[in-house]
Write a structure and sequence with these properties.
It is built from two helices and eleven strands; from the N terminus they run βββββαββββββα. The chain is an alpha+beta fold. Strand 1 (about 10-15) and strand 2 (about 20) form a beta hairpin. The mean pLDDT is about 90. It binds S-adenosylmethionine (SAM) and zinc ion (ZN). Zinc ion binds next to loops.
Length: about 180
């Protein structure tokens, strides 16, 4: 019998706090490589500064791609009234941070620069995740696989969870009535 060597799970050290590797949530993710204390600034989200017209163009292109392929990753962050930041760049390791319904970190805009801060102590090996804050509008296109006890099943901003839960209950009732 031929024994093939197991494919190693490549790890890339990003900075003193975190590393990139395969994630159980989706694709690659960012993980704590040491204890990160609550309030620590973990990483900056960097990318290309684009105006709102360009941002809308790129956003629409992503929507089209997602319709064709069933999914597309979104890397554009709102910075201010005039500009957004497109983080879809190899040099931006922070683009690989996944969403969680029980986030341990949050993205903060500090004078038009984006930084990720720890919301609580994060243990070595824990995946680092924040609330993407997606609007409920296209929720069906963004199923959530964060696996946390309070996962609502879709990547939707916590501020819209009540609305989402009402919608999901309504849809369930409709399906029952049809059956
Ligand atoms: C900015 S990327 C994050 C990095 C991604 N894991 C990768 O390897 O490219 C965002 C995409 O990752 C996926 N993703 C992130 N968090 C997720 C979650 N909680 N559940 C399911 N998919 C998730 C979605 O496809 C989302 O559009
Ligand atoms: Zn979730």
């Amino acid at each position: 019998m031929i024994r093939y060597p197991r494919r190693p799970n490549p790890v890339k050290q990003v900075n003193a706090f975190c590393e990139v590797r395969q994630s159980p949530i989706h694709g690659r993710g960012v993980f704590a490589s040491r204890l990160i204390r609550k309030g620590t600034r973990i990483i900056q989200y960097v990318g290309e500064l684009i105006d709102k017209d360009e941002s809308n163009r790129r956003g629409l292109a992503l929507l089209e791609e997602s319709k064709k392929t069933g999914g597309a990753s979104v890397y554009i962050f709102e910075l201010n009234d005039d500009y957004d930041l497109d983080g879809d760049k190899e040099y931006n390791d922070a683009r690989l941070i996944n969403h969680s319904c029980e986030p341990n970190a949050e993205m903060v805009n500090e004078e038009d620069e984006l930084f990720l801060y720890a919301l609580r102590d994060i243990l070595p090996g824990e995946e680092i995740a924040f609330d993407y804050g997606y609007d409920i509008e296209h929720f069906l296109e963004h199923p959530c696989r964060c696996g946390t006890p309070s996962c609502v099943g879709y990547i939707v901003s916590r501020s819209q969870w009540d609305q989402l839960k009402r919608r999901l209950r309504k849809n369930k009732k409709k399906r029952k009535a049809k059956a």
